[in-house]
Amino acid sequence: MLELLSFGPNGWGGQLLMGTAMTVAVAVSAFAFGILVGSLGASAKLSHSLALNVVADVYTTIVRGIPELLVIYLLFFGGSGVATSIAAAFGYDGRVDLNAFTIGVLAVGLISGAYSTEVIRGAVQSVPFGQIEAARACGMSRWLILRRVLVPQTLRFALPGLGNVWQLTLKDTALVSVTALAELMRITHLAAGATRQPFLFYSTAAVLYLMLTTISTAFFNRAEISANRGVRRA
Amino acid sequence: MNWQLMWDSLPRMLGGLSLTLQLIVGSLALGALVAFGVALLRLSGNRVVETLAAAYVFVFRGTPLLVQIFLVYYGLGQFEFIRDSILWPFLREPYWCAILALTLNTGAYTSEVLRGAILSVPQGQVEAARACGMSRALAFRRIVLPVAIRQMLPAYGNEVILMVKATSLASTITLMEVTGIARRMIAQTFAVFELFIVAGAIYLVLNFIATRLIKFAEWRLTPYLRARA
What we know:
By secondary structure, chain A is mostly helical. Chain A has helices spanning about 15-45, 50-65, 70-90, 100-125, 130-135, 140-170, 185-195, 200-225. The radius of gyration of chain A is 21 Å and the shape is globular. The interface between A and B is large, with 38 and 40 residues.
């Protein structure tokens, strides 16, 4: 029975490995996109413009309050239409089709971004205001303050929260399998159907996901230690 | 924006609401029982039992819920002895498979919340209860558990919201709850945004009600924190 998991001609080992690689690719891209969205969202929430505050609040409330699967269906069925109309606004009059990978990254990234927004907002707010004042008193420009004072410390404060967001993002990528993107869950589903060994393959997928989450927990722990190496412990 | 279609789709979507609510309430109630048992096992002091309970929590928190649902729905039926067992009439129904997977999932998360809450009860209170002559069981029932439940409510509120959203995955094993109906209607009409808004609004309302209920429970359980009139 374990032959089915091997890398030989009858085995699904190679495909499962490719699927795992695809899962990691979607998760990393979506997480990165989510941090970008989260930084924008956090700056919108912290800005003095009421309109931006409201937009960011609506975004995080809606995305965090509705099922991830619905967001994925929205992008899956509606993403290409929106992309086409955006392209049309720039004078391109063909049809734009987003591929499954792009749809997956956009959907999971938007979900991830809503959680990142809150994490980053909290981290920015925990940088003591006195430090900003001190930097300003030293004559630093806004950009210099951002680069030298705010961002490095925000990263350190945000790291534990972003670690949680990463775990959520990694597990959310399994939902992208409904768009038939060949990531781990989709390959597992195909293998389970073809071999009639669903238990074997779904438990293999569970083990692979466990390995990914365990490795990333270790990675984030090390990153935290390294980010805090200059901080005295209480 | 096709308002008429949105309005017309509402009754059909709300037709799935009953199933969504059953999944939420059923898995939260059963999950609370599982969480209670697992939290006690994790604090039992017996190394073997603690390791087993920790392994359960590790597996269910470290894998996607979709894998768990498919493992229960497709995976269990593979075995002869399960198909011959008295549980088969339940396990062949997607409804009970969804409830089982959701229960095990929320049980793992909630047991950690409850364990943290039990550990946060000040040792002095337990000592005081013991000094008053309460047995360990009585002290747990009268002192530790009520304080722990109050303590865990905010974190449990997050878990409730996660569960409201998680029930949407039941649509992947043919259950026609709100998300399943929305998906089918989108495929039929291609009115993606209209139907997304209607389905999303239903979940937002559910989550709004859930957070209010938790807030109310918190308010009821913390009379001493209210400003005295």
